[in-house]
Amino acid sequence: MNSFFENKIQQFINSPNNSRIWWHSIPLPNGDRIRSCHEDQELQFQMWNALQIDNSGGLKGKKVLDIGANDGFFSIAASMAGASEVTSVDKNWETWPKNLKYISKIWNVDIEIITADFRNYDFNKRYDVIFFFGVLYHLEDVFTSIKKLKNLLEDDGVLYIETQMSQLQSNLPLFEYASDIYPTIAIQDKKYLDNVGISNYLFPNESAIYNLAYSYDFDCDSLGGKKNRYSQNHPSRQIFKFIKKQDLKIRLTSDDLKSRDYLSGDWSLPETIGTWTDGTEANLSIPLDSIISQKHSNIQVKITAVPFLHERHPQQIIDILIAGKPLTQWTYSFSKSINSSKTLTIPVALIQQSNCLDLTLKILTPISPEAVGFNNDTRKLGIMVQLIEITGSYN
Ligand SMILES: C[S@@+](CC[C@H](N)C(=O)[O-])C[C@H]1O[C@@H](n2cnc3c(N)ncnc32)[C@H](O)[C@@H]1O
Question: Has domain 3-244 been given CATH number 3.40.50.300?
């Protein structure tokens, strides 16, 4: 077993880097364990186990974002469980990022550290997994934050939320408003209202969590139950797994393209593994009635195709037009390794009028295998389209 998760403790040691406080009790490679300020030194391990992520490789190859990472127990754990990239974000926490820098160096793991309020930071990429532990109730703007997290996730991405819950019993979704003057489940801590992420705002009940998942198109599992010693020991705290609903709505394989309903212009006859363009202008026309909703801002069109390339014709250049308007240009080169999938991001406004994806491939220099001396095929080939996948994305 990976020594981080081994959990045999030689001795607890107080702040090994002389910082004032450690929020997380984190193992050290020599078997010692950093003492946290919590009474329960097993808190983070209980939380981690409640997530039911396999310690040996459960996050293999995943890009993980740990929001409110604090001392970084969960960032290190993610890396130890196989994550290919870990990004940790926090802002005003007193020992940030000193403790995380210390512990990641000790464990020799590479972590991207971002000091920011995650709500207005431009991450510029998407993640497979987001940890959002102990942050939800620190937000004035729960709804826009969840919307942001959704957009930060890959299509089949997972958001783990750990939160203080309201204990108000109701079947209706309720958020309890943290207060210093009413006996709410935890105080507001009004004096820190001007800081990011210190004061408390809203504690959801279970229905509010499910409603939040529903509003932003997630499937939601409560990670309660026998394996969850964390919530058993801390009944007012729960962990939920939000799974981003697949937005994939249209998938056209080479078999689908055989019907030719979608094709016009310069296409060859569809073959089992795909359809060649044959000439300079090949059109695709795909009805999108079922996918366009008010909420979509873009659609992503991923086209898997192979180009016809030869040493005597080492490049295929293709202009892509949407509804007759130039969108981008694709270049395939003989000398470079070919990525057979290319994705177009198309603003919904460009297709909303017709509710149809009207895509033109302008092949600048099609050529026949015969012309390059490859065989006696006289079709003027550009690319062979094999698969078209269309997804909608939200604001
Ligand atoms: C209660 S602590 C939880 C720490 C850790 N995630 C855990 O569960 O043990 C909340 C952390 O989230 C950070 N935080 C809260 N709101 C934030 C925001 N908007 N942007 C970045 N960090 C935030 C705080 O600074 C703090 O370190």
Answer: no
Residue carrying structure tokens 């059109």 = 283
Residue closest by Cα to atom 6 of ligand 1: 133
For domain 248-394, the question of CATH label 2.60.120.260 is answered with: yes
234-262 tens-digit pLDDT: 989 999 999 997 665 788 999 998 888 89
Burial of 68 by CB count in 10 Å (0-12 exposed, 13-18 middle, 19+ buried)? buried
The Cβ of residue 281 has, within 10 Å, a number of other Cβ atoms equal to 17
- Predicted TM-score of the model (pTM): 0.71
Residue 192's φ and ψ, nearest 5 degrees, are: -105, 15
The whole-number average pLDDT for the span 345-365 is: 87
* pLDDT reading at 359 higher than 50: yes
Q: Is 197 in the pocket of ligand 1 (CB under 6 A)?
A: yes
CATH 3.40.50.150 residue spans of the chain:
3-244
Pairing outcome for strands 127-133 and 153-164: parallel
Closest residue by Cα to residue 276 from 389, 385, 388, 387: 385
* 234 in contact with ligand 1, CB cutoff 6 A: no
Smallest CA separation from ligand 1 atom 16, residue: 197
* Cα–ligand 1 centroid distance for 12 (angstroms): 24
Higher-pLDDT residue of 303, 299 = 303
